[in-house]
Design goal:
Layout (H helix, E strand, L loop, with lengths): L5 E4 L3 E5 L6 E6 L2 E4 L4 E4 L3 H19 L5 E4 L7 E5 L2 E2 L2 E8 L2 H6 L8 E11 L8 E2 L1 H6 L5 H23 L3 E14 L5 E6 L7 E5 L10 H4 L6 H18 L9 E6 L5 H13 L4 E5 L6 H12 L5 E6 L5 H9 L4 E3 L6 E2 L2 E2 L13 E2 L3 H13 L3 H27 L10
Parallel strand pairs: 15-16, 15-17, 17-18, 18-21
Antiparallel strand pairs: 1-2, 2-3, 3-7, 4-5, 6-7, 8-12, 9-10, 9-12, 10-11, 12-13, 12-14, 19-20
Helix pairs in contact: 1-6, 1-11, 4-11, 7-10, 10-11
Bound molecules: guanosine-5'-monophosphate.
């Protein structure tokens, strides 16, 4: 990448202005590895390439999941360890999320054993100051010292948790426990003249603790280097081998499972309902294959379609839409061992009864009955998310945004004066 003037330097990276865009920077990862706030430092040839590869693969996954990050492009082998990122004003706070007690937490809290599980996960803040060894700060201190507003601290904590959730899903799929993770945030300008909080800096094998099969002795991360006294050349080779393994494993994070939804509808008139399901599925990155087949009129054809979808390479989850009768849902459910979600059209009739609620449906219709098409799509996406971190991330981000919408609505309700002039409670 073409680079302009150097604008900053960290312990393991150098930042340059992008010559074409004032709102972007080029981040170049270095071969250095440090511990103890820079007190211990070594150089491992090729570590910069592995760091750029790991960070770019992680940020690509997070971007696909819809998390707001600073990452734009680059970082792969042909990019000279260089990534293009959105320029932002860094907030000098390290946000650490912990699923399991380890490291500085057990030092600070001697009564807590290493390996203790936190539920909910713990979020801690540390002020970035090597000379003072990054002191722990409370949210109140951050606000008091005007490092960030209370709203910004809340967003940082939420996004850090969400990020942890997504990355621990990706690691879990490889039977690796994500123990803890450090992230940093920046403020970026928005087109309307405001600012937004972005997940920034880097996330690489220096940023977390990862224990395969939940076993600390099998650790793959920088802790191996921290635990060494003065490392020999072969110690550093061993550290590098772990960084290589992590970069490769992280390369699987955004790999799609190929899972999809097979929509079987009983009549062409159900297509509007199918449209709504397919549209909602697309927001989670899930594709839908539609077929029209009737249990009453074309039973063999319906069976053939199920057999066809069952033998596809990717995992199928069925959503059946039955208009006048739910025989189709029961039929598909009996024909396959794959999950079937019945999403009957509301207002349609079954056995002379109008369907207004899933409670009105007879048992044995399908393994799951979900009326609203958007909810049926969500249920299917959640099933496919088990094997696909992009889908899992999109579902997690969508649920986070929905929660926020509700909280915003409540906040604006509380601050709206009622008609008699008194503020509502
Ligand atoms: P601890 O507070 O236990 O030392 O660290 C918690 C987590 O944050 C660990 O996963 C650790 O790797 C990460 N972490 C803490 N400080 C730093 C730092 O200065 N740089 C990086 N890259 N990660 C850190």
């Amino acid at each position: 990448m073409n680079k302009g003037a150097e604008v900053g330097r960290g312990k393991t990276k150098v930042l340059f202005q992008d010559p074409k865009r004032s709102d972007a920077l080029v981040v170049v990862s270095q071969d250095s590895i440090t511990a103890g706030d820079g007190a211990k430092r070594d150089v491992i040839a090729g570590k910069g390439r592995l760091a750029a590869l790991t960070t770019s693969r992680i940020f690509r996954l997070l971007n696909e999941a819809g998390l707001p990050t600073h990452y734009i492009s680059g970082g792969e082998d042909a990019d000279d360890n260089e990534m293009l990122v959105r320029r932002c004003e860094m907030i000098p706070i390290e946000v650490v999320v912990r699923a399991v007690a380890a490291g500085s937490y057990v030092k600070r809290n001697p009564g807590v054993k290493s390996g203790t599980v936190f539920a909910p996960r713990l979020v801690e803040f540390f002020f970035k100051d090597d000379a003072r060894h990054d002191p722990q700060y409370t949210a109140e201190q951050i606000v008091e010292e005007k490092i960030a507003t209370a709203a910004e601290v809340a967003v940082m904590a939420d996004l850090a948790r969400l990020n942890f959730d997504i990355l621990s899903h990706a690691w879990r799929r490889q039977n690796v426990l994500l123990v803890d993770l450090k992230v940093e945030f920046g403020r970026a300008a928005t087109p309307n003249g405001g600012t937004e909080i972005l997940l920034a800096d880097v996330i690489d094998n220096d940023s977390w603790r990862v224990w395969p099969a939940g076993d600390q002795a099998l650790m793959l991360d920088k802790q191996i280097y921290r635990n060494l006294g003065t490392p020999s050349a072969s110690d550093l080779d061993n550290v590098k081998a772990k960084y290589e393994e992590v970069a490769e494993r992280v390369g699987q994070f955004a790999k799609r499972s190929g899972g999809f939804v097979g929509i079987i509808m009983g009549s062409a008139s159900d297509n509007d309902h199918a449209d709504r399901i397919a549209k909602a599925l697309a927001t989670y990155g899930v594709t839908a294959r539609r077929h029209i087949a009737s249990a009453h009129k074309t039973p063999l054809y319906a069976l053939q379609k199920v057999q066809l979808l069952d033998s596809a390479l990717g995992q199928v989850v069925y959503i059946t839409i039955a208009g006048r009768s739910n025989a189709l849902s029961a039929f598909v459910d009996a024909a396959t061992a794959n999950p079937v979600i019945a999403s009957p059209v509301i207002g349609s009739t079954w056995g002379g009864m109008e369907i207004v609620s899933s409670l009105a449906l007879p048992t044995g219709v399908a393994s799951m009955v979900v009326l609203e098409p958007e909810n049926a799509a969500l249920a299917a996406a959640k099933i496919l998310a088990v094997d696909d971190t992009v889908i899992y991330g999109r579902v997690a981000v969508a649920q986070y945004r929905n929660r926020n919408k509700l909280i915003d609505a409540d906040t604006s309700l509380s601050s709206t004066p009622s008609t008699n002039g008194k503020a509502t409670e």
